[in-house]
Amino acid sequence: MDITVTDASNVPEKAYLSIRVGETRRQAPLRLNEPLRFPSDNQESCKVDLFTQVGSQQVPLRRFKDQGEQTESVALENPAGGPKIVLSLNFKHTDPRVKQKKSQRQTRHQAALNAKKYLDDFQVQQLLQGMVQQLLTDRPADPLTFMAGYIQERNTSSPNGAVEAPKSEPAVHVQKKENDAVDYSAMPGLGDDEFPGFPHEDCPADMPDLSEHHSVMADVLKANPDIYNNLKEKKTPNGVGLAKCIKTGMDNKGHPMIKTVG
């Protein structure tokens, strides 16, 4: 059986129609000529209710999608002017695949913790940091041979042949200033030399492809490329141009899950 509202008068805005036939209830916003279907037509009567919307609020479901469960408190304005109407909602997945995904995320997290512990136990990160730091300071003609020798030197000088970086110094041959602070001035981007990559003085004629960049800067330029075209040749009174301002964002693409300013 189909029940259709063909005409209505004096109906308040955003009214909801509810019709019950036997044990079946259908409810929807009141619209003309849209039938509500019921499985039985053997009833002697039906019940018709008309409701108006008391309040409305959007509830984000990001945590529900990620965790499979979410609890939210929703506050709605009271049309009678009294205290706000407060609803506590609990969202919970019934799909077993969600629990499986959650378990997989926990497994990946534990694997990451185990990997970090391994790197910390053998001080691998300190070793690599010292090696890269020394590599950029010395800039050898054959970087691969330099890195192999650097690691071999640490390997033979450590007890039991374990690869271990020096604990007291960030690197063995890093230049230091008089106050024993590491001198980073010889490293590109940290001293007088600019980091290689996007030019720091003049912008290219055409804006580079930013399709794989993830930053606020990239979003702004992708949404309005005219900003680049209008500012690429302009300079401040001190001679600073657009290239200098956006170089960091151009050189660092970022990550979709970790958006930086750029």
UniProtKB/TrEMBL annotation:
<feature type="domain" description="Phosphagen kinase N-terminal">
    <location>
        <begin position="199"/>
        <end position="262"/>
    </location>
</feature>
<keyword id="KW-0808">Transferase</keyword>
<dbReference type="InterPro" id="IPR007858">
    <property type="entry name" value="Dpy-30_motif"/>
</dbReference>
<protein>
    <submittedName>
        <fullName>Creatine kinase S-type, mitochondrial</fullName>
    </submittedName>
</protein>
<dbReference type="GO" id="GO:0016301">
    <property type="term" value="F:kinase activity"/>
</dbReference>
<dbReference type="InterPro" id="IPR036802">
    <property type="entry name" value="ATP-guanido_PTrfase_N_sf"/>
</dbReference>
<keyword id="KW-0418">Kinase</keyword>
<dbReference type="Pfam" id="PF05186">
    <property type="entry name" value="Dpy-30"/>
</dbReference>
<comment type="similarity">
    <text>Belongs to the ATP:guanido phosphotransferase family.</text>
</comment>
<dbReference type="Pfam" id="PF02807">
    <property type="entry name" value="ATP-gua_PtransN"/>
</dbReference>
<dbReference type="InterPro" id="IPR022413">
    <property type="entry name" value="ATP-guanido_PTrfase_N"/>
</dbReference>
